[in-house]
Amino acid sequence: MLKMIAKPLFLVMCAAMSFTAPMDICMAQDKQETLGQSVKEQIPFTLGYLTTTSHLLAFIAKEEGYFAEEGLDVELIPFASAGELATGLEVGKLNVALIGSVPSITFQSNGHDLTIFGGAMTNGHGYVIKPEFVPENREPVIEDLKGRNVASVKNSIQDLELLIQLKNHHLEIGEGPDKVNIIYFNSQKDAFAAMQGKEIDAVSFFPPFSSIAKANGYRVIYHCKDVEEFHNQPCCRQVAESSALEERKDDYLHFERAFIKAYVFYKTNHEKTILDVKKYVNLAPETLEFEIYGGFSSNHPDPDKSATVALKKQVVDAGYTSDYDIEPLYNTAVYSEALNSLIKESPDDPILKDLQEHFKKYE
After folding, report:
1. Are 3 and 343 in contact, with CB atoms under 8 Å apart?
2. Would you call the peptide bond into 208 cis, given omega within 30 degrees of 0 as the criterion?
3. Reduced to 3 states, what is the DSSP secondary structure of residue 241?
4. How many CB atoms lie within 10 A of CB 64?
5. CB–CB of 101/177 below 8 Å?
6. Where are the alpha helices (DSSP H) in the chain?
7. Model pTM?
8. How many of the other CB atoms lie within 10 Å of CB of 1?
9. Closest listed residue to residue 194, CA positions, set 153, 139, 146, 166
10. What angle do CA 272, 254, 303 make, to 5 degrees?
11. Looking at the DSSP assignment, which residues form a beta bridge with residue 151?
């Protein structure tokens, strides 16, 4: 497993300081080191996230001290939408934002100088329908949406997948008994809340709303991971202002190292991962267990460039935005260097080797 190497020589320092410095200073340094924090000055860094298990690598990196080990004093700031996260980057409030792949692409296409440099989650979304609209003797299918009001979120991976699914099944969008009426909301939270009323019959979801849907008795029409076309569908991406990524390359390199360390922890320590996530997504442990380890999504730091480039074509084909050159706005070098540096430190770690293989496949 990945070794988190302690750096301090505080015992030697304490011996040298014992004649002039109080012992409690050394004890404080000792405590700091046992938390995985570096005694060197921590560089302030801000990370914007949504309250979702999709962003758990950030929570682990903070709670397990991996950001601090890398010399970063990271403040995690919650936001309500992708648009707010992008604005946070552009006004200098954020150094990194975890933004959905589709809004990241549309923001880039519309002239926002934002670069994708890593990942956070793959798959994990889909649609549910109220049980009264599906016969009890069979599983829901996409055709069950005919004549229904479907709540969705514009400029989201969930909505793009729905449009693709409707097209593939020859279903028209609009009002009427043979059409699917899509009603848009500003956020997934608002869309899901609308299911409590009589006007909405089905709704999109991403973690942790699939668990909430299950608790409410809604029935799953599909999880995207079960649709062949959506295999390895990139969702949340690590995004930064292009100029900041260039000017503070070392800081972003250390940020990425912390994210990769968090991934190793997530793969090897389920119980503590759930406890870390619960501090940011306050749900029952069994609900978090389902969302994190239930097999419907993967929290992955890889940039997944080829998969995202393929997704960009789907976004353009769906009419979400016009085509553009994504190459200048996609940076895989930071992740590659961070991963290689960790492999050099722990060459036999099987999880790091798996990450290396994944990167080679989807670079």
Report:
1. no
2. yes
3. strand
4. 22
5. no
6. 10-17, 23-34, 56-63, 66-69, 82-90, 101-109, 157-168, 188-193, 209-215, 242-247, 249-268, 270-278, 285-293, 305-317, 333-345, 350-362
7. 0.84
8. 14
9. 153
10. 80
11. 183, 203
pLDDT tens, residue by residue, 156-182: 999 999 999 999 999 999 999 999 999
Looking up tokens 């019959």 gives 201
Enter the DSSP assignment of 16. H
- How do 237-241 and 114-119 pair as beta strands? antiparallel
Two tokens, residue 238: 């690590």
Asked whether the predicted pLDDT for residue 115 surpasses 80, the reply is: yes
Classify 306 as helix, strand or coil: helix
- Of the two residues 207 and 274, the one the predictor is more confident about is 274
HSE of 94, CA atoms in CB hemisphere, 13 A = 26
Tokens of 356: 């290396």
> Among 200, 205, 207, which residue's Cα sits nearest to residue 133?
200
> How far is residue 262's CA from residue 259's CA, in Å, rounded to a whole number?
5
Which amino acid appears at position 114 of this protein? Answer: L
Angle at 253 (CA atoms; ends 251, 255), nearest 5 degrees: 70
8 A C-beta contact, residue 201 and residue 148:
yes
Contact 261, 268 (CB under 8 A): no
Element (H, E) at 289: helix 285-293
